[in-house]
Amino acid sequence: MNDSSWGAPPQAGYWGPSDQGPAQGAAPAGPAYDTHNAQQTRPMPIVPDVPAHGGNQDDDRGAAVSGGPLFRDETPSTPPHRAPSRHQPQPHPQSQEPMSSASEPASAPQKKNAGRDLGAAIGVGVALGAVIVVSLFVVKAVFIGVIVVAVVVGLWELTSRLQERKSIKAPLVPLALGGAAMVVAGYVRGAEGAWVAMALTALAVLVWRMTEPPEGYLKDVTAGVFAAFYIPFLATFVAMMLTADDGAWRVLTFLALAVVSDTGAYAVGWRFGKHKLAPRISPGKTREGLLGAVAFAMVAGALFMQFLIEDGTWWQGLLMGFAVAVTATLGDLGESMIKRDLGIKDMGTLLPGHGGIMDRLDSLLPTAPVVWLLLVIFVGSG
Prior knowledge:
The protein is mainly alpha-helical. Helix content is 58%, strand content 2%. The longest helix is centred in the middle third of the chain and has 38 residues, at 172-209. The model is unreliable at 1-44, 47-87 and 91-109 (pLDDT under 50). This is Phosphatidate cytidylyltransferase.
């Protein structure tokens, strides 16, 4: 290879003649050499192999100094492959990384992936929405049954993942029975009934776990009490919304705002998201997505409060929409934190395109008490 391929200038006295020497390409002066046999009689210095995949030219240039072609006008050629010598300079570790070249075709730009099966997600979402709307506006007790089913399935998913991934055996039977009782008590007796049912459920978890060996008792009952609070107790606030005269519209507003917030975050974040919101917890969430959630939820909140909630006003809807966007995002991040700790992507596979029931309840559960409280403050509990 000639010296120009390395980007280094020729050195006098080695590759070519000096300013006082013979012309370029001529053989060294002396009787032992002639122009015909100069290359056959003079020993060729060892030229190190070119590092694979291109390489760091700054490092390779140093290799060219210690060995190179005899004459500057030689035709460059690929050096023969040879076993590396212990005296031969070795390429820098960084030179093993492949580098793109002009001869390699440029890779096609990657298209953004939505990250879920949109067809299945939309189909399941429409089906769930239909069940909720029908149960809300036909018989309220049916909707309470829908809440109970969602709570029990969510408890089953959470306790199953805890046992599979962490060997934590939170007792499902007292949790499921206590969770169902909690939702019904909240609907019948309000907040007081919900708190009493929560306390009794926690006590049932402590006693139930005593039937097994004491090893792991503390972590099992702690997980059980956490599950009782996280799923059925927070879901009880949805049942308490339903007790108002316009309870069906309140629940519909709560659900719609949560869905709109999630849709706004997804649409804006997928299209414009560049700055990560919480990369260590949920790498897919962006600050732009959060702004989209806030904007969408505030607009929807103003419309719903103005036209669906009795005595509600648009500015109250703006505040409620902002609160929903924040709590829904925090709820999503909270469940993502749990899933990161468990080392799983979804809590279940029951809902195609969505994951499990808990993957849909994650943003709803912490939002329910906030919406319930704001509605009580803005328009009362009746």
